[in-house]
C-alpha cells in the first residue's frame, strides 16, 4: 500500500490546500493529512477545530485520513509506514523554505521522499494568513475557503470581539 502524508498547520484549511488534497488523493492508496501540533505557534484555531474542519471538507474522499502529530514529521512517517511527504508549491518564494525542509527530512530519513504539487494558478496567491487577514477586517473570504470554513472563521472572530469587550 502506498501511503503519503500532506503535513501543515492548516490554520485554517483553504481552497488551495483542498485542491492539493484532492489531487494528491488520486496519486496514493492512502493520504494522511497531518495537522502539526506546535505549541510555539499561536494559532487561531485549536488542533481539534482544525482537524474537524478538515474532516468536514474531505468527507467525500474515502482514502483521506485526518490526523494530528507532534514532533518530527519523519518520525511520524517511519512509525506509520508512510513513504512520501506531499507539499504544495505556490510560487518561487515558497521554494527556498520548502527545499530546506525537504532536504532536512531527506538527511534524517532518506527512505521518505518529498514530492511537490504546484498549486493551481487560481489559488497561487492564497495562504491561511491571507484569509485570516481579510477575515479580521470583516472582508469577503468566500473565494478563499469553503462555506463551512468561512462560517467557522467568522464565528471565531466574532467570539474574539466579544472577549475584547
Ligand atoms: O503549513 P506549514 O506551517 O508551512 O507546515 C510546516 C510543516 C508542518 C510541514 C513543518 O513545520 C513540519 O514538518 N514540522 C514538524 C517538525 C519537523 O519535522 N521539522 C523538521 C523539518 S524542518
Number of helices: 6
Dominant shape: globular
Strand order of the largest sheet: 3-2-1-4-5
What would CATH call the architecture?
A: 3-Layer(aba) Sandwich
What share of residues is helical?
A: 40-55%
CATH homologous superfamily (4th level) name:
HUPs
CATH C-level: Alpha Beta
Total number of domains? 1
Number of strands: 5
Bound molecules: 4'-phosphopantetheine
Draw up the topology in text.
Layout: E1 3-8, H1 15-25, E2 30-36, H2 47-57, E3 64-69, H3 73-79, E4 84-89, H4 92-108, E5 113-118, H5 128-136, H6 147-164
Parallel strand pairs: 1-2, 1-4, 2-3, 4-5
This protein binds 4'-phosphopantetheine (PNS).
4'-phosphopantetheine binds at residues 7-9, 36, 72-73, 101, 104-105.
Explain what this protein looks like in three dimensions.
This protein has a single domain (3-124), classed as HUPs (Rossmann fold), CATH 3.40.50. The chain is globular. 44% of the residues lie in helices and 19% in strands. By secondary structure, it is α/β, with parallel strands linked by helices. It has a five-stranded parallel β-sheet, sandwiched between helices. Bound molecules: 4'-phosphopantetheine. Residues 7-9, 36, 72-73, 101, 104-105 line the site of 4'-phosphopantetheine (PNS).
